[in-house]
Write a structure and sequence with these properties.
mainly beta; about 5% helix; two-stranded antiparallel sheet; 1 helix; binds iron/sulfur cluster
Length: about 90
């Protein structure tokens, strides 16, 4: 099955996980593995976000899950996709 969610267009066989490690082929469907699973949560300065001109000096809640369709060199991002291996299937 072809996942059409992003430009990678992964061609996944039954049980296979996509490049992002967040979507997989299960029972003939492409399903999100990270739905409802939080891997990071933090209170950040709003200046870290594209909203930096919105209430300067205030905090913003950042919530994220595992999986990414890019391969950036930043260590914290590289570690997050491995979290899924520790989760129950
Ligand atoms: S990287 Fe993930 S979202 Fe993108 S096509 Fe592959 S499985 Fe789908």
């Amino acid at each position: 099955m072809i996942c059409e969610l992003c430009f990678h267009r992964c061609d996944l066989s039954e049980g296979q996980t996509g490049f992002c490690r967040a979507r997989a082929c299960r029972d003939g469907m492409i399903v999100p593995l990270n739905y409802g699973k939080i891997t990071s949560i933090a209170l950040d300065p709003v200046e870290k976000k594209p909203l930096r001109r919105f209430h300067p000096g205030s905090k913003i809640l950042s919530v994220g899950s595992f999986g990414c369709n890019l391969r950036c060199p930043f260590p914290d991002i590289r570690l997050i996709p491995d979290v899924q291996n520790a989760l129950p299937r």
